[in-house]
Amino acid sequence: MGTYARQNLVFERGEGAWLITPDGDRYLDFGSGVAVNVLGHAHPVLVAALTQQAGKLWHTSNLYRVEGQERLAERLVAATFADKVFFCNSGAEACEAAIKAARRYHYVDGNPQRWRIITYTGAFHGRTLATIAAGGNPKYLEGFGPAVEGFDQVPFGDIDATEQAITPETAAIMIEPTQGEGGVNVASAEFLRALRALCDKHGLLLILDEVQSGVGRCGKLFAHEWAGITPDLMPIAKGIGGGFPLGALLATEEAAKGLVPGTHGSTFGGNPLATAVGYAVLGAVLEPGFLEGVQQKALRMKQALASIKDSHPDLVEEVRGQGLLTGIKVKVLPADVVKAAIAEKLLVVGASDNVVRLLPPLNIADEEIAEAAQRLSRALDRLSATAT
What we know:
With 388 residues, this protein is of the alpha/beta class. The chain has helices spanning 32-35, 44-54, 67-79, 91-108, 129-135, 138-141, 159-165, 189-202, 272-285, 290-311, 334-343, 366-387; strands at residues 13-15, 18-20, 26-29, 84-88, 116-120, 151-154, 170-175, 178-179, 185-186, 205-208, 233-236, 247-251, 316-322, 325-330, 346-347, 349-351, 355-358.
C-alpha cells in the first residue's frame, strides 16, 4: 500500500554502520532503521543469538511459559526500576499497554473516574488510534473519525501548564524524555524531576515513553536516568531488539496491578526469537564501558555538528540532542537535506520542527562520525549551491 514516501533505494546487506546496495554501493547509515539498529547491521553476537534460537524453537504463544522471555525480563528488572515486564512487538503496542495499565490501575484502586492522561505537544507515541490521539498531531489524526478520548495535551516543558491540566479525572502523565519524531526536543532534568514530584503529589502514574530514547541511545541505559528519577510505567521498543521486532512495557509492581489475566495480551509478544535477540542486545549494551563509550561518541558528534552549524549558518539554525539521539534544525525542508545526504551516500532521517536526525549505531567508530560529518557538510554545500 502507498503508506510510505520511500526513497528509491534497495539494500542487499549491511556491515556495521554501512548498508550496501545490490550494485555494491556503500551508504553510511546514520538512521539505524530509525534508532533501531543500536549495534549496527549483522552484528555477530546478534546473528549468533538469532540463528541458534531459530534452530530450536520459534513460537509457542503466551499460553505457555517462554524461557527466553523470563531470562530477558529478569535482566531488564535487574537493570532498571521495574518489577514487571509485558512483552509485545512494537513501540505503539508498548505505549498502548502503558495507557491501559494506567487506566486499569485507578480502576482497581476504586477510582474508575481517573482515566485521562496528560501528554505534550510534539509527542509521538505510535500509529494506533489511541496513540495518535495521545500524540495529538492533526496530520496523523485527519480522516480517522473522532479522536480517541482521554488525552489532555499541554506545551512540552511547561510545568505550570501541566499542573493546571490535572483534574479529578487525571490518571497519569505521559512524556518522552527526549522527543525523536517531534524534533529531538530534550526535556530538562529539572522538568522531569518536577513531573515526578507532581505525580507523587496528586497520586498520578508517570509514564516515560523511552521507545526511541532508551537502550543506550541517550548515553544512559534509559534517558530518564540523567534526571535521577524513575517512572511507574515505561514503554520501550526499537533498540531492545536491535532490528528484530520487540517491544515491552516495564512497570513497578504497584503500577502493574491492574493488568491481570484476561485484561491484555499479545500472540507474538516476547516469542523465543525476539527475546533471544533482545537478551543479546541488552548484554552488549550493559558491557562495562559501553555506555561511557556512547557518551564519548555523542560528544564527538555534538562537536562535529556544531562545526557544521558554524560553517553553514545559512542552512543550520540549531544543534539538538542527547547522547546519539541528535539532530540539526535547518532553514530548508528536512526532506531536501535527506535527499542531498543520499547523494553523498549518507542516510539521515527527517523529523518535525524542521529537524534532521542523525541516529548512528551506538558502536559507531570515531572515524565514521568524522566521515558522516564530512558527507553532511558536502550535502549542505549542495543545497547552498542550489539556493544561489
